[in-house]
Design brief:
The chain is mainly α. The protein contains ten helices and no strands. Helices cover 73% and strands 0% of the residues. Helix 3 (136-186) packs antiparallel against helix 8, helix 3 (136-186) runs antiparallel to helix 10 (283-324) and helix 5 (212-226) crosses helix 8 (252-273).
Length: 325
């Protein structure tokens, strides 16, 4: 048994030696870098810390220092320019403030000297009534001035509106009279009223009542539209048109007469509406004339009061001048 223990111990000793040598072998393996570095890095440990040759003779370091100096000088120049503008602004503001203070002191001094010479005891009786209330003439003058300003801009507009309204009313009345005359003359066409019935009045418009060709065309359009199917044999207008084969526009003469009557009635009514008597009796024109008369009266009053006020002020100025002398 002892022999076995000794053999075991003898075997364990070389085994432990082998394990220990294997660990040391793994730790001491050196790995070499196959690729070479593209750039060598300088560290402070490789050279002296304050050696001038490491900075002054290095082109990269010179370029960095030159860039730094240039940018620093540029920044200082910009700062000086800004400070120059700010200083000028503050200087101008200070000068203005000083002038205001000097002017204020000067005014206070002058007012103090003037108030020192005034009498401190003033009764209500010594104050003129004109201080508290305006005269009647001044009030009337101001009212007239305001009224004149308003009327000066209003009257020309009223006159223009009145003339335009009179002309428009005359045109409308003459157009209505011409249309009525044309419709009355078209009633002489055989069977036209019976054919159109309530649409007969729509045959004449504001554009064709005094135009012969337009009225002939309107009646021709009625013939082409309504004289179809059964109406050809039942309506008198269509029967007469079919029988007058040699003269298809048998109604043209009546249509031209209607246009002539419409034109005559239009001219007569327009002349009557624009005559002097009708012009003066028109409410727009009458109101415009009345307003112009009122404005003329108001302006006359204003001029009279203005002249009196100037005369009064002249006397006051002469009186004050005498008192000063």
């Amino acid at each position: 048994m002892k022999v076995h223990y000794i053999n075991i111990l003898l075997f364990a000793l070389p085994l432990s030696i082998l394990v220990h040598n294997q660990r040391n072998h793994k730790k001491t393996i050196l790995r070499t870098i196959k690729t070479k570095p593209t750039k060598t890095h300088r560290t402070l440990c490789e050279c002296e810390l304050y050696a001038p040759s490491n900075y002054e003779n290095d082109p990269e370091m010179k370029e960095v220092m030159e860039n730094f100096d240039r940018q620093t000088s540029q920044r200082f120049e910009e700062y000086n320019e800004r400070m120059k503008d700010e200083r000028q602004k503050h200087k101008d503001q200070c000068e203005k403030d000083i002038e205001k203070i000097i002017l204020k002191d000067k005014i206070e001094k002058e007012l103090t000297q003037k108030f020192a010479t005034l009498e401190t005891k003033i009764d209500i009786i010594d104050i003129s009534p004109g201080v508290f209330e305006k005269s009647l003439a001044d009030k009337v003058e101001n009212s007239c001035l305001k009224c004149g300003n308003n009327m000066g801009g209003l009257v020309p507009g009223l006159a223009l509106i009145g003339g335009t309204a009179v002309y428009a009313a005359a045109v409308n009345a003459a157009t209505k009279a011409g249309m009525d005359a044309a419709i009355l003359e078209l009633e002489n066409i055989i069977g036209l009223i019976t054919l159109l019935k309530e649409k007969f009045a729509q045959l004449v418009t504001t554009t064709n009542f005094k135009c012969p060709n337009a009225l002939v065309g309107a009646v021709q359009n009625v013939k082409n539209t309504y004289c179809v199917d059964k109406a050809i044999n039942t309506q008198p207008f269509c029967l007469f048109s079919t029988r007058s084969v040699s003269n298809p526009l048998w109604f043209a003469e009546s249509a031209r007469d209607a246009a002539q009557e419409g034109l005559t009635a239009y001219g007569t009514k327009f002349v009557a509406e624009t005559s002097p008597n009708a012009f003066l009796t028109n409410p727009y024109i009458a109101s415009s004339i009345a307003i112009m008369i009122i404005v003329a009266i108001v302006l006359t009053i204003y001029l009279i009061l203005s002249y009196r006020r100037k005369k009064k002020m002249k006397k006051k100025l002469q009186y004050i001048k005498l008192l000063k002398e």
